[in-house]
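Morning!

As promised:
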Amino acid sequence: MVLHRLLRACVSTGLTILLGGLFAATLARFAPGFGVDEREFDPRRGVASLQDLRARRQAVGNIVSYYGGYLARMAQGDLGVSQSLGRPVAELLAERLPVTAKAAGAGLLLGWLPGLLLALATCRPSKTLDLAAGVLSALLLCLPSAVVALALLFAAPTGLRPSVAVGVAVAIVVFPRVLRFARGILGQVAVAPHVQMASAKGVGPYRILIAHILGPALPSLLALAGVSISVAFGAAIPVEVITDSPGIGQLAWQAALQRDVALLTSLGILVTTITVAANSLAGVVQDCLRQETA
Amino acid sequence: MKRRAFLLILACGILCGVVAAATIGPQSGGELRFCVRADPKTFNPILVEEEPGETVRYLTGGVLIRLNRITQELEPELAMSWRVINGGRTIQFELRDGLRYSDGSALAASDVAFTMNTLLDPKLHSITGDMFRTGPGLISAGVTGRNKIEITFPQPVAGLARFFDQVPVVSPRALALAAQPAQMPVAGPYRIEEYKPGSHVLLVRNPYYWKRDAAGHPLPYLDRVRISIQQNRDLEMLRFLRGELDFVVPVDPESFDRLAAHARAEAVDAGSSLDAEFIWFNQVASAPIPAYKKAWFQSQEFRRAISEAINREDICRVVYRKHAVPAAGPVSAANRFWFNSRLKAQPHDPAAALARLKQAGFRTVGGGLQDRQGNPVEFSLITNSGNKTRERMAAMMQQDLAGIGIKLNVVPLDFPSLLERISRSFNYEASMLGFVNVDLDPNGQMNVWVSSAEMHQWNPSQKSPATAWEAEIDRLMLAQSSELGPRKRKALFDRVQEIVWEEAPFVYLVNPNALSAISTRLKNVQPSVLRPQTFWNVERLTLAP
Amino acid sequence: MSSLRRLAMLILVLVYAAGLAANWLAPAHYAAQFRDAPDAAPSRKFPLGTDAVGRDVLSRLIYGTRVSLVLAPAAAILATMVAGLLGGVAGYLGGGMEAVILRAADLFVSLPWLFLLITVRAMLPLNVPPVESVLVTFLLLGLLGWAGPARVVGATARVIRRQDFVLQARASGSGGFRLLALHVLPNLKPILLAQFWISVPVFILSEANLGFLGLGVGEPVPSWGGLLREIENVQAVAANPWLLAPLALLVVVVGCFHLLTPPEDYSK
């Protein structure tokens, strides 16, 4: 039974990841501007050079057979060469993924900790706290995160790495979402009958919070955690572009503007893998918790 | 005894100082720091196509002839002399004695032949090589004596000598090592020491560089050049203000004025650049736009009226903060020799524009302009999004044209989508872009003016000229490209500029000024409007302590 | 109604009313260019200064209310409804259907929708009226914004499905769509409200970024997102802090939206 479920999970995960790569490649291939290279507009370029450039850009052809070829090469560790940057895709990803992962990871931590703590604190009715939480999350939701990252770089003393600014910007995106959703989730559990019963029986507020509110809310919070990983990566992309942080976000933007199918296919697979892995992990932990309580 | 020892040490110290001063030269040492927008795609000097690569090539490549960016005259470099003979088909060089690459190996005349043969290899598709291709046939490049080389082209190449400003001499060994840039021997003032993708390129002094200053000190003065890779211009400017960079070029007008407000000496306006901003109308017969709009765009009166309705002075004053001049045509006044000084920028005259339109059959109905068939005059203008200057110019033109009853819809598009519309689908009505002119000579614009060319933007790749004036431009451009006498060439190209002014296939808007931010620490800088504007004389730059 | 909620309501009414009465309230037309005063500081003539081509910022802020404060909440409602429906169905049904919907959500979140947006722009005529362009923009935002929250909604719906009152309703003979509509979906309200409050400012900001692709509000029609793009120039903001006025107003408005639904209402 367990093996069967595991097999089904693996197949659905694998299929989702493959579809992610295929759709990313298809969207890029059929987007307007594919096959056009701004280098064509250099007036120094002769006719033969122009034709050669165009032929190289159109080399993708049928997208399904291109993707099939891509997967066959990927099985041998070859992710192709980026047309826009002229370097192996695998090399580019190996260089840039750690930068984004560190920034997104730091941002998640910085966003989750205060967000969850504040959400827990608002489980005890307090108009002041509620107002403060509302104003804070409204302010942070309205702030363009990329601008905050830029402002940090401008205000900070010399030597602040762009990835630090990216981390803070990701935290600014994640925190209000965690606060809002967590408040909703925890708030709903807080008014459940079992909590009222525990309170009536004299259970202390902190024990109620941890055992009777946080516990039942954990599955939903885990789902939120899984989603926030993809939110964090998604938030990192535009911020990396604006702050010149050399992560996969900047790479993705450059690839998108150049319609670089090889790079975009690999990035599509990578981002889908991260999203699916995060959510699947959250799902597995939820299932384990459910089995424990059952 | 002690006194004698002290005096001896003192004398030695003085002697060392004198020797050091004699060998190192005044104010030597230090690191020049600036940014480029993207990683160089290649370090192979034959295949370089984009600005970051050209920057590295300029700093590391030894060329036969160098264009002085201030006087706009050619000066000898690796070649101590040259001669163009045989009706512009042949050029002869005599190299200097004792030239070496950065690894100490000798630079021979055969390397020049190798460079030219590789450059013009049709399989490589080098755009530097494309500049020399004026017709079919092969070139021959051969050594004719000690340090002498002769290169013969199948067709005359007008302005032949100046092309060599962009051709660094390379050896077979250098090309073989192009993928390992730190190992590649070069003949320029610097060689590549380190390349970190996404971060920087570090160049160090070439110890075998041939050039010396008037006092005999070896050049370059500066030890290193650090080229950082920075896309965000605001961050680049921030780094400059913090003293992390020595110059920033180009600088947008807003940042320039802010810099000038608190550090006047560092904000340098070198005057009108070679670049131009312009709009054009889609005149492609097969374009998927309504026939009545094609009729408007193909009408000279319509195009001239639009040109008259646009307030270029306001654009220069508001968008460029007076750091631009209204443009008269394809050549700016900064191009001293080729500029047709008889041409003036179209003055803003909405009344004249309306009169011209009425003459062409348009009429004003209820505040809006209509053509003969009653179609309201409304068209879209595409431009590349993210370019605030162009978006602001478009907003101003929108109001200018509204003043004569024309509705202009501004549509910013991402660059590939825009390029696709103007070169493949031709699904657009009007477009606004800019020319970045790297070449003074009009031959660099052949692919724009000749009607059969791909970059003849308003109606590219014509099998035969669609209009008499385009046929005339074709004739004039081909004539000037094979004419060797500069005065005759100028007369021919002056006429091209006049036709363009009359027919307005491109409605030229402004020539922006060449704005840069230069640290006061950087000495011997002579900012130019020609690229590379700030470091064209890099070997003579110094840094104050 | 508490005094704070009354104040929030009043502010929102005033802001919406100002947008509706823009033709009378705004000191100048949103497109009027005062070319002798570009980037002007606040003054009696221009209370919030002017932009780079001399347009009065206060006038553009007032007119921009019509676009941003009507369409962004509408798009947020659409995204929330789709997330609620799909997430709710996924969590309620469980099993294979849940897996399919949630995997589809994962895929949706991962894909580079930039290209879809570019393709939509390519399909629209170049001379599309600003109203249509704006509607398409916000429709797209609404349709693309469901995937992230759908997972959270699904997880919550799964929890609700197992609660006693649902079991009791099932035992009483309620099932299928009735159970979903009457017992599960209403209990998703806190999550859906949270999603809505988050989406409104996000969509206002996203509209500004879509201008980069040729979507968004066409010149010269103003929007709050377009005005907020100006604050990307951090140095300009440092020198001219009044450029933050649109941001301040957006924070106030979003804060007011939040204040109108205090937490004690979640239980109802």
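The mean pLDDT of chain A is 84.

Hope this helps with the figure draft.
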